[in-house]
Amino acid sequence: MSAPGPLPDTAPKQVTFYMATDDLKRAKAAYTGTSGQEMDRSWSDFVSRAVLKEVERREGLYNEGGRYQGGTRNLAPGRKIRL
Question: Which string of b and e fits 42-53 if b means at least 16 CB within 10 Å?
């Protein structure tokens, strides 16, 4: 019997990012207008699910549906990532 792999890290981590003011207003309005119907636990839950939806779309489109490796380095705010 092989040893089990590491457990996923599901502990919440604070995330800070910049977003255009009009887009933020639109997102907040959609959240407050639908959080009851969508059963959002919080604003953080809403944002997290929105980000993961885009992550899954990109994994499906560019990585045959698999998860990308990495994701541990800090990203520079407002600048494109250098490869």
Answer: eeeebbeeeeee
